[in-house]
Amino acid sequence: MKTGKRIGIVGLACLIATAARAQQWTFGPKLELGLSARSTSAGEVTIGDVSVESGSNAGDALGAGIGGFARYDRSRWYGQAELLTQRANVANYYISGPRSGFSEYARVSRFAGRVLGGYKPLPWLRFTVGVAANQYRRNQEDQYAPSIASYYRLADMYPAYKDEYLASVRTYEVAQSVNSSFKKVSVDVLAGVGVDVGGLTIDIMNSSSLTPVVDGITHQGQVYDLRQKYSNWSLQLGYRLFPVKAHLLAPRRSNRAYERIKKDIPFYRNEVHIAGGLLGEDIGSAFLYENRYTRYLTRRVGLSVGANIMRLSKGYLPGQTTEVQLLPAVRFLPLYSRRHIIGLSTGPLLRYESGYRIFSGRSGANGPTTVNLRNDSGARTFSAGIQGTVDYQFAISDRLLVGPWLRLSSDYAYAGIQAGYRF
């Protein structure tokens, strides 16, 4: 009888301990990298002699974003709240007038608050749905005002071409009205799938607008019926830093099992990598090659330096530039096991850009375009910024490593694959 009671007490204690582990709050940072974007509403309106067309076509991806999250886990489901800030293209139009035509892309700064929930068929696998409220900020609401003023001056200076210049004025005034019609807020619905690797969370997420980002264009007091929504796919990476004991720190030093395992994990102070990657925001426009060396001061902390070269194609004109980059950084390994390694690196990004820029008399990419080189076409600039990199490495052997990486900077987001050797 006493034995039965003891077994029951032990079983109850195990059940309580399991339940305590199954329901837990965690917190941490999150990165988001856009993969693709699509405008989902197509239409066309004519405003005077100017045509405005919203295209249902793929465009540049959602830009990179950074933020934080709070997550509550149960054994079979979880809930999560997020706050992120990012750059995004949320709409695109083609504006065609009697004398000129050009594309208008709504490039905005977006602050997003999200509430997510999902089902976990396995402890490490998640299916997610949720909603997001977005607030947009733009600094280009008056971007066409200088062009409008310039064409008015030209019309006064050259009366023989007055009609042509005033036609351009009407086109840019319509473009200004389109620019002012973007909403300040919108609501999205999200769905995706994710996996957990220790404290690392990896999600592929689709976001589609429930409310339009443009719901009518107001020009000279009249509203023209034109709407646009969007949909995009993104890769999201997070790390559950808190509570610290659950996902970051090693077990107590007095834990004999941990000490035995630790002795079996090889520790090498030197690590070299080669890596290749693509610009994430406009896939196909840039390729990056990198060499990196890391010197570890401890098992988890080291100093690294990377030397990169990146080839870029900018815009619709055939302009090519080459960037040489130097990346000194501090490197930290929140996950360090025999076969699986997660690294976080941050530091300055020093860039030297060279190449040439192409100029054209046209404002857009549609139709035949004449390009020319000028005396100032050569591009040689130096700039500096801050970068953050997260990577996962699988140890094929004690010395050979391979895995993906993601880097965010003030201008770009990159993703790629790397191979390493440690000694």
UniProtKB/TrEMBL annotation:
Keywords: Signal. Residues 1-22 form the signal peptide. The lineage of its organism: Bacteria, Pseudomonadati, Bacteroidota, Cytophagia, Cytophagales. This is Outer membrane beta-barrel protein.
